Amino acid sequence: MSEWLPFVVAGLTSGAVYALAATGLVVTYTTSGVFNFAHGAVGLVAAVAFYWLRVDAGAPTWVAIAVAVLGVAPALGFLIDRVFLARLDQAGTAAQVVIPLGLLVALQGGVTATFGAASRQVDPIFSTSSFAVAGTRIGWDQVSVVGVATAAAVALAVFFRCSDLGLRMRAVVDDRELTLLAGIRAGRVTSAAWIIGSAFAALSAILLVPFVGLDAAILTLLVVQAFGGAVVGRLTSIPLAFAGAMAIGLGASFTTKLVVSRPGLAGLPTSLPFIVLFAVLVFSPKGRFRDLARSKVSRSSIRTRRMSLPAGAALLAGALAVPFVVHGGKLLVATAFLAYVLLFVSLGLLVGLSRQLSLCHAVFLALGTTILAHLSDAGLPFPLALLLGGLAVVPLGVAVALPAIRLSGLFLALATFGFGILAQSLLFGTSIGFGGTGAVTLRRPEILGMSFTGDRAYYLLVLAIVVVGVGAVEVVTRTRLGRLLRALADSPVAVESLGVNPVASRVLVFAFTAFLGALSGGLLGTLYRSVNTTSFDFSASLLWLTILVTAGPVTLGGQIIAAALLALPAWFTTPALSEYQAVAFGAAAILLAQSRNGLAGLWRRPDFARLAGEGRARLARSPVRDRLRPGAEVRA
Amino acid sequence: MKALELAGVHAGYGRTTVLRGVDLSVPQGATVALLGANGAGKTTLLRAVAGLLPLRDGEIRLAGRPAPSSADGRARAGLCLVPEGRGIFPRLTVEENVALFAGGRRRRAEAFDRVAGVFPVLAQRRSQVAGTMSGGQQQMLAFSRALCTDASVILADELSFGLAPIVLDELFEAVAGLRDAGRSLLIVEQFVDRVMGLADWIYVLDKGTVTFVGEPAQLADGRVFERYLGASR
Q1: How do residues A622-632 score in pLDDT, each as one tens digit?
Q2: I want to staple B73 with a disulfide (CB 3.0 to 4.6 A). Which of A362, A458, A571, B68 is the partner?
Q3: pTM of the predicted model, to two decimals?
Q4: Smallest CA–CA separation between A59 and chain B, in Å?
């Protein structure tokens, strides 16, 4: 028993931190219907403010905490609600997910760019002295963390029971429209919820940093572990979310003890929250997760024009000319751009065609690359190894399709998010992944006696493969599978009522997208000759999604723009540009998430009313209204 | 003096236009019944008046002044819509519902007394979770929002929806009580006979436009009824 006690203490401590974060997440989600993917990033910003005040400005610790938790974080939460979420009132599910994701990418990128990516040590907040219980040393700091978390949760419960604002919040959760009819300013109530939720995120992040250090990536990820707890509470129950997060903290701690002698499972404790997240979402009874998002607009009205044949031919001719005009490093960038086209075409199959958000695409690329490397090392010729690498990733795509059959919108995005981090921490370290060294090397191929080791030759090889891949996707989108997926995106019920089983098409599209993703990963890996674990980590998936939504996920033109945007910073080789790349794309995704088809949509038909905002502003310029002007034919 | 005035109101959802130039007025202290077939736009009209649906054209005036643009603003300006279905917070208790309707916990005691005076059954259910009550009791609670505010204009959308006749008697008694207290009412109802006895004015809505305005006696004439409501009786 006593050998377990230290793990109980450690588990309760981390569980308390997750519980605080999960509580804040549930408060914001239930009152606003927007799931804050940027919850961890809000905590990160507050933790940076805390660090800056305490270390650089020399403020006393308690003042720094108070300013960060009660000043900076609430201000940020208020801003998020008023500036970004006010736009979401009539938005579709994709925008409901992409705008918070854009915020996450922008905030994390902004902190990294201004504060540096390096992790910083943070001095303890509470006393590190300890006392002994049954032979186990228990730190006062651990006791304090659990105490603060419990006190905050109790205070929140009392606030909900006994205050007018708390009552109004519960009313908004129950029926937002009715609160308006009762004369309550529901917008203010939602803002208050964001203020409270952000303060909880800040508190959990600040309690955490003395234990793990101040590190943008780790902090965003660790507070994100609260997702697991929040999902246990179905994203709506605060007590269940609190308990779930506590259980995850304890479980992770126990798992640490269990796997201590098995290095192969070292990734298990940290990925436990994501196992819970994925498992709860996949195995819950259908319909258990009710999307709280308000007034979704059917996007079936999206009409896009296909790229015309002359335009496609001109693009191809231009692409063929590139290696004879561009040399050196820029030719490498151009080659990467081609591989990115394949990446975004594959992601566009999900995001644009079947309108399912995948937040785990990097896994397909990473494993496509590593398997290609291993097969090449085993002596297989390049084309076969590339093909087999792609096929080997297909089962992973099918595994992601499992939640896609049952879940949609936000919950699918969450499940794929969990899956991505899970696969990263469980598979990257294995022998089919990057192995113990954390990196694989690849050689440019020789096919049928022709060498593709030169940059120009390799460019042309990539171009050929990408053209075939894009052609295959065009065929799929124009035939039965494509039609079915479009129909499923509009109304799964209608498709099922026609006697069509949607499972096969869902599984097929995920298998296909995984295959293409693996191909593009293999091409990128072979281009750079070496790939390591950080090349394709989970944050890459998020960045790609924001870029694709920015550029336009529905059409090939948009997907090509996305590839160009991703390749842009390397082309100009200005470090400042790549530092702020994430900020720019996060912000752009927020602005363009609700446009018909991102930048590509603006290209076709400038629609700046959509940039200006939804609702009234848009209505004011709509042709419908013009037709309804007095004197128009309707009046007759 | 008009408590509520609509002039040339156009409204709709997405590409569908539902209301096509509706003119309607509720005089101070009067009761107006809004009749029409399914899909005529009755609920849309009430939602537009309440501010839940933006107007595409036209104007709404409350007590002679332009109505505030937001739904909550209109509620504070004295407009009260009891929506279709059950206009209650199902996961809160009866008392908490009343506290919200009355605008705060401090005013809940007085408001609750008023409600209990009209619907004694709700007094016994004070701390019950509202969503667990019977449909009739839920509708009483929903309608009690009109009782515990001093709203001058009350809009009621199909109070009778899915309720037993005996419950209806009690509800319509409460409606009559409000009318006698001098409140202005705009009522949408399927039970035409019940509102006929209550209303001062009848409006008939068809395909988004007003096709008949008159006193109940005019509509009681079978031919008019048939012509405007598409059914004989």
Answers
A1: 344 344 333 33
A2: B68
A3: 0.82
A4: 40
